[in-house]
Design brief:
Layout lengths: L3 H18 L1 H7 L4 H22 L4 H19 L7 H13 L4 H15 L6 H23 L5 H19 L1 H6 L7 H6 L4 H5 L5 H21 L8 H23 L13 H11 L2 H17 L1
């Protein structure tokens, strides 16, 4: 049994890991009330660690061993077993507190298995499954943390896919260096752009047409997700709005760079995030969220 001081230390570690792993996500969670932020950081820490087991594995076989061992620890925790692992300890607390379905972390692990076994995707239908497993389920878990009504979860799935497609477009060069290509091969062929062209980092008219098509699809998913944000509970929905706006801005920066995704990584600087936040301010719930952020900055 951990003491309150030990748990508080773990939650601070979860917040630090969140800030280190995703500046955009951490920025958004700063609009949550403290208890929601703690749960959000616990969920993120679990997701980040699960992803790192694959990304940081020296080879595929070691990655398999790591993810299967992690899956066994998760399953034992889900069955009610006592866990000593700090990440699972916090994650299980968040799951219990917010009634997060067990199928979501299992789907995330299934997505990590896909990432080990597949470094190419033939069609968007194949890629969409991957996006659902590694991103949409994160949004579904966060929706349970925040609270929701109506068909909000359907829209959360679309927002997760939009964000993962944004990540894929931003990280084309980084993924290529690891021999991973997430752009559907069928679509490369349709636009007359080969894998050899991609490896040579050719920014041809065909590449620009291909990328414009990818950006349009991501934007379509953002638009489809839009009606779901007002279905989240007021104390958390503004943070999701900020996250969606920041990720949409990443997409805009990819496009305005002329799709220079091979040697640079599109980022949204802090001043721009605050501008996007100010633009989105409307209503008492949003103002309260912004006041929490200002208080947080003052006490940091």
């Amino acid at each position: 049994m951990r003491t309150t001081a030990e748990l508080n230390h773990l939650y601070r570690e979860a917040a630090e890991q969140t800030a280190r792993g995703s500046k955009s996500f951490y920025f958004a969670t700063r609009f949550f009330p403290p208890e929601l932020a703690r749960s959000a950081h616990a969920v993120y820490w679990f997701c980040r660690h699960t992803d790192d087991l694959v990304d940081e594995a020296p080879n595929v076989e070691q990655g398999r061993l790591e993810i299967e061992a992690w899956s066994e620890l998760l399953e034992d925790s889900l069955r009610g077993g006592e866990t000593r692992h700090p990440i699972l300890r916090l994650f299980r607390e968040a799951m219990d507190r917010h009634a997060i379905p067990h199928e979501y972390p299992r789907e995330l692990i299934a997505g990590m298995r896909m990432d080990l076994e597949r470094v190419r995707y033939s069609t968007f239908a194949d890629l969409r499954v991957f996006c659902y497993r590694v991103a949409s389920v994160v949004g579904l878990m966060m929706s349970h943390v925040i609270g929701y009504r109506g068909p909000a979860l359907d829209y959360a799935i679309d927002l997760g896919i939009a964000m993962q497609l944004t990540n894929i477009l931003r990280d084309v060069g980084t993924d290529l260096a690891m021999d991973r290509i997430y752009l559907p091969l069928e679509e490369l062929a349709r636009f007359g752009y080969s894998e050899a062209d991609l490896r040579a980092k050719k920014r041809t008219p065909a590449f620009e047409q291909l990328m414009r098509y990818q950006v349009k699809r991501a934007r379509d998913y953002y638009r489809r997700a839009e009606p779901g944000i007002p279905m989240l509970e007021p104390e958390g929905r503004f943070a999701v709005r900020v996250a969606a706006d920041v990720y949409s801005e990443i997409l805009q920066r990819i496009e305005s760079s002329g799709f220079d995704v091979f040697d640079r990584r599109a980022v949204v600087p802090a001043y721009r995030k605050y501008w996007l936040t100010a633009r989105s301010m409307a209503g008492p719930a949003a103002r309260q969220s912004f006041e929490r952020l200002l208080s947080w900055r003052a006490n940091a």
